[in-house]
Design goal:
Distance between the termini: 42 Å
Structural class: alpha+beta
CATH class of the largest domain: Mainly Beta
Largest sheet: 6 strands, mixed
Bound molecules: zinc ion
Number of helices: 7
Low-confidence stretches: 1-31
CATH superfamily of the largest domain: Apoptosis, Tumor Necrosis Factor Receptor Associated Protein 2, Chain A
EC number: 2.3.2.27
CATH topology of the largest domain: Apoptosis, Tumor Necrosis Factor Receptor Associated Protein 2, Chain A
Protein name: RING-type E3 ubiquitin transferase
Enzyme class: transferase
CATH architecture of the largest domain: Sandwich
Shape: elongated
Region (Disordered): 1-34
Mean pLDDT: 86
Helix content: 10-25%
InterPro entries: Sina-like_RING, SINL_plant, Znf_RING/FYVE/PHD, Znf_SIAH
Strand content: 25-35%
Number of strands: 20
């Protein structure tokens, strides 16, 4: 959340005013969104850092307070500073700075993925929450020596074209073998030819092996939503276990750190010294599951 002097935040803030007097004087500004056409004057705020609290550096939220010298601070900083301005020591926390509050309300900040095609705009500070579930978020090619990143569909075709040797294909609703060597650490399954990419990973620790299943995709509604069931069986089939998630986790980048949640744990004594995990997996598309239920 620290915003500091990040120069990327400095771009593209738009300030608009809907004050009637200003509208009368204004020239018409075309609005390319489908909202009701309103005559508003707009300009560009060149430094979005101005909208961060100068004390805590987080995005300002209303109410905004000022001291007699005009220094501003957010309401939580006024409390933690015990109403003493950090710049001049005069009292702060009673008088609000209405102009700063109005400017804050009038600012439209584009999604940080605007350069990748997202057209969403937000009030200042809200764009970060959206970024986490933006369908234009970049995904990274999981192959160790490849630096490709792109929108998930582009990544899927990139993967199909460039790394066909290391992938297995899966079909939703069908069991498929996911037998893997523990030393391989990762196994990729791709739906059809250029469909979503699923990573099955194993992480060997002292007591056993953790196995995870993740789809490489942004956490956006409607994008690569799957459920899965993973089945493990010891080599001669005398011990079995299964693990599944109604909602497969989506990640933009694979991580090689031992997971803390959402894993299947196969203890070493299940494996009887074998170097591989005999598994199969069934992946389902989430919408299709719901259709079956209704
Ligand atoms: Zn603050
Ligand atoms: Zn002051
Ligand atoms: Zn976005
Ligand atoms: Zn690649």
């Amino acid at each position: 959340m620290l915003r500091g002097t990040n120069s990327e935040q400095v771009l593209d803030g738009e300030v608009s005013s809907s004050h009637p007097e200003m509208q009368r004087l204004s020239s018409l500004v075309e609005d390319d969104e489908a909202e009701p056409v309103e005559e508003v004057r707009s300009g560009t705020l060149l430094d979005l850092d101005l909208l961060d609290c100068p004390v805590c550096c987080h995005a300002l939220t209303n109410p905004i307070f000022q001291c007699d010298n005009g220094h501003i601070a957010c309401s939580s900083c006024c409390v933690s500073l015990r109403n003493k301005c950090p710049s001049c020591a005069l009292p702060i926390g009673v008088y609000r700075n209405r102009l700063a509050e109005k400017i804050l309300e009038a600012v439209n900040v584009p999604c940080p993925n605007v350069k990748h095609g997202c057209t969403n705009k937000f009030s200042y500070g809200k764009e970060l929450a959206h970024e986490k579930e933006c369908s234009f978020a970049l995904c990274y090619c999981p192959e160790p020596d490849c630096n490709y990143s792109g929108l998930c569909n582009n990544l899927y075709s990139h993967y199909y074209v460039n790394h066909s040797g290391s992938r297995l294909s899966f079909t939703c609703g069908y069991n498929r073998s996911a037998w893997m060597h523990i030393s391989d650490k990762i196994l990729f399954l791709q739906e059809r030819r250029e469909g979503p990419l699923v990573a099955v990973q194993c992480f060997e620790e002292e007591q056993g092996v953790y196995v995870t299943v993740n789809c490489i995709a942004p956490c956006a509604p409607g994008v690569s939503e799957f459920s899965f069931e993973l089945f493990y069986s010891s080599y001669f089939g005398e011990k079995t276990m299964s693990f599944g998630l109604r909602e497969m986790n989506r990640i933009q980048k694979v991580s090689f750190e031992t997971p803390e949640k959402d894993f299947m744990f196969v203890p070493h004594y299940f494996m009887a010294g074998r170097p591989d995990l005999k598994m199969h997996i069934c992946i389902r598309r989430r919408g299709e599951e719901q259709e079956k239920k209704t």
